[in-house]
Amino acid sequence: MYETLSEALAAAIADLRDEAGQDPATARARLDLIRSHHKALQTVIDIEVSLEKRSKEPGGAGAGALDLDAARTEVWRRVARLQGAGGD
Fold first, then answer.
1. pLDDT band per the 50, 70, 90 thresholds, residue 53
2. Residue 10 in contact with residue 33, Cβ under 8 Å?
3. Is pLDDT above 90 for 75?
4. How confident is the model over 38-57, as a mean pLDDT?
5. Is the pLDDT of residue 61 over 70?
6. pTM
7. Category of 18 on φ-ψ map: left (φ > 0), alpha (ψ -120 to 50) or beta
8. Helix or strand or coil: residue 88?
9. Which of 8, 15, 22, 37 could form a Cys-Cys staple with 26, CB 3.0–4.6 A?
10. Rounded distance between C-alpha atoms, residue 70 and residue 86, angstroms
11. How many Å apart are CA 36 and CA 78, to the nearest integer?
12. How many CB atoms lie within 10 A of CB 6?
């Protein structure tokens, strides 16, 4: 979505450079495009800040590698328990 808005904004800016005068409806549409772009950009920045904070927290996304062996063991343990309970 952000990439599409960026492309549309770049095209609108190029159009503004090419046009000396424009009708109010076109100007309003471009203003809406700029507002949408700003909102999408702010959302991306907010998400990046949130991810950065989480990656620095103990146990967060950057806390270390996943223990795939432990995860595999846990999955097999649960499968065995379900099979034992007749839930195959």
1. confident
2. no
3. yes
4. 86
5. no
6. 0.47
7. alpha
8. coil
9. 22
10. 25
11. 47
12. 13
